Queue: 2 jobs
Job 1
Amino acid sequence: MMMANSIRQEPSAKTGERLLDVKGLTIEIETRNGPATIVDGIDLHVDKGETLGIVGESGCGKSLTMLSMMRLLPNKIKVTKGEANFAGRDLQKMSNSELRRVRGGEVGFIFQDPMTSLNPVMRIGQQLAEPLIYHRGMSKAEARKRAGELLKLVGIPGAEDRLDAYPHELSGGMRQRVMIAIGLACNPQLLIADEPTTALDVTIQAQIVDLVKDLRDKLGMSVVWITHDLALIAGLVDRINVLYAGTVVEDAPVDALFANPSHPYTQGLLASIPKLSDERSTRLSSIGGTPPEPGRRPKGCPFAPRCPLAEAICHDRVPTLEGLNHDGAHRVACFVAQRKLEAA
Amino acid sequence: MSVVPMTTTPIEIEPPVSLWRDAWHRLRRNRLAVFGLVIVVVLAFAAVFGPYLTPYDFLSQDLNSRNMAPSLSHLFGTDDLGRDVFSRVVYGTRTAFLVAIVVTFIAVLIGVTLGALAGFFGGWLDRIVMWLTDMTMSIPNLLLVVVINASLKSPITSWMESRYLATLNPVYRETIWVDFLLVFGSMALISWPPYARLVRAQVLSIRSRPYITAAQALGLTNRIILMRYVVPNALGPLIVAVSAGLGTAMVLESAFSFLGVGVNPPTPSWGNMISDGLRVWQHYPHLLAAPAAVLGLASVAFSFLGDGLNDALNPRGAK
Amino acid sequence: MMAAQPLMRIEHLVKHFHVRLGAFGERAATVHALDDVNFDIFEGETLSLVGESGCGKSTTGFTLLNLHRATEGKVIYQGKNIVELDEKAMRPYRRQLQIVFQDPYSTLNPRMTIGEAVGEPILFHKLATKAELKDRIATLLADVGLPPRFASRYPHELSGGQRQRVAIARALACQPKFIVCDEAISALDVSVQAQIINLLLDLQQKYGLTYLFIAHDLAVVRHISDRVGVMYLGRLAELATREELFEHPLHPYTKALLSAVPEADPAHERSRKRQILQGDVPSPLSPPSGCRFHTRCPIAMDICSKAVPEWREARPGHMVACHAVTEGLLG
């Protein structure tokens, strides 16, 4: 296990005030056989100035959870329970006009695929200007000027000249920077990034991660970064939530998570990442089986069917997130892990 | 064996479901499509068995009961030769189906072959086929049919009569088949291009899919790839097109018969019945209404069925 | 593990694609996908090709198997230059040279059952009789960790990882000597990737296979390879054993690439100084002159924009194409 002998050197300006507070959020999908649960009573929060990483594999509901914040869910998928509070207001209960002001104005969203997330028939200058005009009431001229500044901020060379370019004229990395610029346009308090680098080459990925780090420090934003790649966010985030089958199974500060992964799923994930320090052809430990489908959640802990440590109680009751330490900073939803702690 | 074994997944509890069965389930749930299917099946039944079950023979005349309105003894009334309109409409169903099926079959055969070859091999073959398609589509349908009919019908009929007189072979007596042959031929000739285009587009799209490259990498021959990998995957839109095409062919046949270049009396066709009925509709509306209504119903039924098949076979968000 | 005589020699391989650009296809252009690629593959080894978009690694895999016809150059297998062969002559070789593709969701014919998909090459290449077929399919499925009853299932009933296993079984059905894994795990979840990597290693042991492993994930490449080749914009930049490449990278691009790979160690990640390359990868439609990397290279010299660097052995078994290395300024 990695020893974290350097505590995070530059803690971001955490004030402990919760900017985003999700409680008991449940998302269901309409299927042929009735509603099926995708996200099951999830609790998560982001403090002001904090960077949260949400990690999980496909189908775990990480994107849907964030999309549901903004009420951007696709047709057959609905939030059926719970609340999502942003700066004290429940996003689920807001009126449409209030919500529109939040979207883009106070919460910026960066989507995964810059190819399809930018309007192909609109110049990027225009796409950047739109939120500025709508949310900040700028005039066209002011918005255009600010758009140029934003492009420069995200490191696009010859910024002002590129304002009139169409998305297809830019490379993948450039487009993603434009997406980031749009997300940042109105100086949001919270930036939600949904796998923004998955579709990019690794050297470009490094550029983008650096850029977001830089901007976050400069603008003092809170960031939620959704990914399936634990290694990617290791140096970027303050805290990590590990999602499995629509529930948070582990919630820990980043150093604690890597040093002491307590949920068997987290342990499995970390163990299956090939590390540069491995010997050649050591067997990667892998997690047998597949995640449950929405309509077929097992009774009890959703990970139990695949868990090497599962006991009788795991198949019977759903574990809740409980703190491992006194300060409750490192929480796990696992009977076995919690029992180990009591025994210790 | 050190490979991590798969744990039991839910799919093992249910039987294998091919994409076809999946589509069938979807179709069944679509009410309009089911309605269309039912109508089509009823009409097909009428086409095959109807003429044996009708109360009257479609040819028998009863000059005492001419142009009678619909009644219990004559469901759709009688025409000006005292023939039972209902029985004639039923026989007309057989005509319609016969023509539609044969014509569509020939058109699909030609269209699929040419389209698949053009799409798969590309190059000069593709260019020739596309040129043929364009040529055929640019000639006005009606003109082509009329020209074929006008120029070929009398010579062929006379030739058959002379052969009959020469050999007394009863085969040459059935000049009614000349009618059908010319109708089938000319209609197939104008119907194949859309199928060719459709299949070509499908094949072009399928050709670049990874499982085709995989099949090539396995060393399989082009013939096998075309027949087992390409065509089965192109069938979806083709089935939809055929269903709609049958409806179109029926309307087409009626149109041509209406104009006198299709099936001629005394063989009943909805088209020539409509033509006759049109002359006297103000006095005897039932003569027009009956065949027209059935033609309309058939067309709508095929249309619903085609739409339903489309939704069933090409669902949005399919894996 | 490595014999003296290579299984396959790739000599001066060139692949250009001619495309039409513009809204009406009015401009003709050339994509320089591969230019003067040279390397050998030895029997039983796993040779990986890494690089970013447009580097030509997938094109290399396809061209080696004649799925793309090379523009120039030779691919010598069992003494024959297979580039020259027409499709008919190529067919017997296809059995021995197989490929597993990236996307498990489109690699299988949706209208064929798993059993049919795996059985097709067996029957076609006459590797078993009809009577033996069922058992052969069951054995292959078991080899890749799938229960034999999956043979009657259709692809859409399987998960991505399971489909990829079927794709591997299908490749194995031909009893090949050589398999190109074209980003075979990139589209899978992390935990499934680990399963498939283990599977590939096991199969290599069991059947004595040679792999050309094309990937962009350096951590995986490090885990699975004997030798690694780094490609950039259609050319090989560096080729060496795994240890050599990761411990003594010579080419500036390789160094930047290694530097960009994140490690699952927060303290390390926070403190490392990344070497961030400026700008984007140029387009293969108009590659830079001379050394194609010179536009982004932190140590580019005058000569780099003028002359293509020589592909030479800088250290034993370690090939590089870089002027700075040639002139003894690095390594």
Note: The mean pLDDT of chain B is 83.
Job 2
Amino acid sequence: MTLEQILEALETRPRFAPQFTAWRAFPAVPATFAEVPPGLDPRLKAGLAGRGIGRLYSHQAEAYDAVTRGGDIVVVTPTASGKTLCYNLPVLDAILKHDDTRALYLFPTKALSSDQVDELHGLVRALGVDVRTSTYDGDTPADARRTIRAAGHIVVTNPDMLHTGILPHHTKWLRLFEHLRYIVLDELHHYRGVFGSHLANVIRRLLRICRFYGSAPQFICCSATIGNPREHAERLIGRPVTVIDRSGAPSGPRVIGLYNPPVVNQALGIRRDAVREAVALAAELLAGRVQTIFFARSRLSAELLTTYLQEDARRRGADPDAITGYRAGYLPSERRRIEAGLRSGAVRAVAATNALELGIDIGQLAASILVGYPGTIASTWQQMGRAGRRGDLSLAVLVGTSAALDQFIVTHPEYLFRRPVEEARTNPDNLLILASHLKCAAFELPMRDGEPFGPSTLPEILAYLQEEHVLHHDGDAWHYIAEAYPAEEISLRSASTENVVIIDTTDPAPRVIGEVDLAAAPAFVHEDAIYLHLGQQHHVERLDWDERKAFVRRVNVDYYTDAQIAVDVRVLEEFAQAAGAAHGEVVVTFRPTIFKKLKFATHENVGSGTIRLPETTLHTTGAWWVFPAARTPSLRPDELQGALLGLAHALANVAPLYLMSDPRDLGAVVEIRSPHTGEPTVTLFERVPGGVGQAERLFALGGELLAAARALVEACGCAEGCPSCVGPVLEVGPQGKQHTLHLLKDARVPA
Amino acid sequence: MSPPDAPDGSTASPTPAGVDAGIRMRLRRLGAAGTARRAAHPPGPDRAAAPLIPRPTPARPASAAGDGVEVVRARYSLAHRHGHSAIGESLDAIAAHGEEIDPGRTVWLDTETTGLAGGTGTYVFLVGLASLGEGGIVIEQFLLRRLSAEGRFLAMLQERLARARRLVTFNGQRFDWPLLEARFVLARLRPTPVDAHTDLIHSARRLWHRVLGTHRLSAIEAAVLGAPRAGDIQGWEIPQVYVHYLRTADRGALEPVLAHNRTDLVALLGLHAAVARVLSNPPGPHGPIDWEGAGVLLGRRGDHAQAARCFERALDEADRREEWIQGNPFDGRDRWRILRRCVREYRLMGAARRVRERWEKEVSRPPQRDRYHAQALMEVSRAREAALDDRGAGVAAAEALAIARSLDGSRAPCPPLFVERLRRRVARLAAGGRR
């Protein structure tokens, strides 16, 4: 069967057709070409022609022109639109014209850089010129490092290495910094939240060092589609950019479907397992030899999918080895083999996690099946974009799970199809992150009085660091005088530096099996907790709080533990308020109290214990909504409490739709009478110390967020409340769902 | 497990404290200083915690620091003793070893820094230079009194070093010099290149690490030079003392650091002489010496006869003493390594007879019947064959093969390739024919 026939079958067959909540067909888009720029070095022009490139896509030519004119650019294009040429072209051109030219390529991860480097190497080899490209990362051998520092034209690295390995030793990189002309930031959409806030500061440091050596590099940024590419790029690099977002690459006709598995338990709102449904849906595709990629949200579901798909292949008499998994944890060589298999067609189906999301070259497949909503509209489009051969028909299906966000998306297709993709938020001026990088900056070069580095509060931070014996002011500059190497204790990937290490002591040789954030430790690894790791239960024998170590033992019990943590929020400063909402700086206190042992399935309470751990506090930003008690006179205090809890649950569930964040990035607190507002209040706070700008965004959304929460609760098929909308009945009370809606109606949500 | 957001609306929240927007308060609450302030090294067991660090006092400008660079000069006469030797004797020993000490051109260098981590944020605040002059040695110490004066400090240093052609340091190739180079780049200066940089740490490691269990300068000073330090400031305290000085302008606090640096330089000279003595007159007398290390150093200098003598001595000593130092037993592998090194020196001398004697002597020791004994017998067989003693060669090879076979399946068997070569050798020699 051809893909056309399979689509027709899916659309009409009673087993599947009723479950599709959306089925949209999009026409093909032809390519827009532009001539190869006349100013391009003739060797480069010939090299392109040798690779069969006689014309450029319009965005590639536009990027070349904009870079040649000077100034910084951000190129925003969909998957597989030839974006690497947008930076390789101007960079190679400049190197061919001036051998002194140096460029720095930054990729968020090693895996993402390796493909781009391979492609660059291929192009350089085809040109037959001496352009030296070197990867400088944790794997680079010590003896090769010296050569790279002295002689590489293009240095490929990641932000972490730039932060700890290159900038603090910039005198060894004299040649690079003196002649640095281009900084390429690929996969810009990765740099959001904490990571982006750190990167923006690393860039500030990088530009300081460039100024010292007298170079003034241009930025060439590339991003997948996000809602605010200009703002995001400008925040990261601190300068205005030219946005190039009209892709000239062609795309074939495509069909996108949203699929909701049938309900199996109406009361609990439980639907058929999405993994099984995806396998059933794909049976025809695989039988028709349609090359298909599956995206799972966890490693476990990727493995399950692989197993089921292989079983299915065996039943059909097809080759199960043509079906493979792909996730973090596979060896690099395995990954390369799978990628090559996908390109050649030897691999017919791959069940991947987002490890395969972007940047990695696997060519274009014919169908993409997303098992579960990936969490953001942006990643949904990226994963769906994996299907779509130029000119040929392709299919993308999102299979919803029972999770709240999934249900919302599949029952509200317009959110996916009409809404702009999420905006990437960063907060380079997060006090903690900024102060960390000021230390690093002063380590790299004394910080002159009045030297720009972010916001105007700088002198106060510098004075604080002097008080703490980290800096010393002398003459007209702040000098680093502490002994520790500051970059080492600052991880770009997290705001807090401390974790609790989890050690399995079941076997004679203890083994580290994981880590939890210090802030989350009281809830998950208190003594006698049952900690789940890769599906295995572990009993926490001992938690050494001072040493940050939890000692666990593998067990097999019929209960789980649920820690009760009393959360208090105190407003330190209100930044703004409007229409019953506000945002500002808050301090959140977590006080562990007791834990309950609950039986699986029945959730019956079979015991409890006290948690003896210190209170922890989190200084961060939050947004809060006030629901004056006078407007809901009919609700008793316990009902109001349930309504607020239900609303907090619903808000926390819909917030990721707008934030490009993970639901775990936010916490919620409800108060019957907030000491700050004096009224019933729901507060959402950021779990990142100091916040990365999410709370401000939540405030700005205001009524829109409440409307989305109401839509979520109203659309939910459950009777009295379920984890997909307001939370379990046990928490919100038997009428929690109605009361939550009552609260939202009374608050006069704008439609 | 539910997220930790269980409500606690019933209990009264703490009273809303006055809104505190002070950035410093917020930074303190966030713990923004990190652990940068913590001492990099824990205090030694025999010392009270940081006695030299007075309570922090509010920073004030180091106004007494003048233009920010101070040069401290000290002179040591030839008669000044450091442990067993006077400075004059040390200089003689260095000269006797054939090292040209061009008075104006050789500089012994040691620095003190604000940290050990390296990178551009580590300042060199004290550079001590020792050189010949004024009827003894002169030590000039360049002290950075204000961080803002670093440019001038480095320029003065550059001018002083411009006359130097040879640097002598302890670990300077990896630490002091790269750090100074980074400082020069940061100050937009280029240091005058020196023709030779002798870093004594390499010789010190070869000669003393195994016998002392360390090659730290202070340990060698005590055990070899006979000059244990007493009352000296500990290296790890120095950065903290300097930071204290920067914040208080308490110049007196730096005196122990300056004294430490001078003693380091005198010790460096003593170490230089001690190395020279061993290398110019290996038989001694010296204190404890790792003879293998001495042999390696001499061999590299092309003094094969002395090198071989040192290796022989290392083998003799190993026979008498089962261990080099506590917990470091001397085993067959060590002996094999020294033997190979020894024989290599004989070969480089062109002394085939010595090679053969060496191997013959080795197998005449009480038999060990281990793989190394088998390998030594193989070498004997080769040497005998080269000396046209085919019968003797056959006997040695057969004995080696017997040992090799007896070790088969044991925990330390002979390498299969070796056994195979041995088997062919035995067969060939038994057939009485050369290839």
Note: Chain A touches chain B through 86 residues (CB under 8 Å).
